[in-house]
Amino acid sequence: MVLSALVGANPNEVIDTTLPPTDLAQSLVGDGVSVSNVTFTGGAGTTGSFNFTDPTVVGFSQGIILSSGSAKDVVGPNTQDWFSVDHGLPGDANLTELSTYQTFDAAVLEFD
């Protein structure tokens, strides 16, 4: 578990980067719903669950993170345009087409 109470981060905001993709998918559908065929494509440390005491960090207080950078960095502060992690992985073709800009380091969670 990564605690975001690091230098420059927002205190009391917790991100758990240890959850496997199956647990992330299950957290999206809730109790009583089965998930199968779970796959994740992306860089190490790009996924996690979060529980924030300050919902203004992302607009709500709990959920999962799929990041093109580092999931633990979502708590900020993100004070520079180039603040990121380069995993050297390809982007997502659909997002590249939609945005008309090249994308990089896609984090993709798929399941049935």
Structure summary:
The chain is α+β, with helices and mostly antiparallel strands and 112 residues long. The protein has helices spanning 21-29, 93-99, and strands at residues 2-3, 14-16, 39-41, 47-51, 62-66, 108-110.
Distance between the termini: 27 Å
3D shape = globular
Coarse structural class: alpha+beta
Roughly what percent helix? 10-25%
Proportion of residues in β-strands: 15-25%
- Helix-strand sequence: EEHEEEHE
Question: Taking all residues together, what is the mean pLDDT?
Answer: 83
Provide a descriptive summary of the structure in words.
The protein is α+β, with helices and mostly antiparallel strands. The chain starts with a strand and ends with a strand. It has a four-stranded antiparallel β-sheet, with helices on one face. Strands 3-6 form a two-stranded antiparallel ribbon. It is globular. It is built from two helices and six strands, in the order ββαβββαβ.
Give a quick set of tags describing it.
alpha+beta, disordered N terminus, 2 helices, 14% helix, two-stranded antiparallel ribbon, single chain, 112 residues, four-stranded antiparallel β-sheet
SSE inventory with pairings:
Layout: E1 2-3, E2 14-16, H1 21-29, E3 39-41, E4 47-51, E5 62-66, H2 93-99, E6 108-110
Antiparallel strand pairs: 1-2, 2-4, 3-6, 4-5
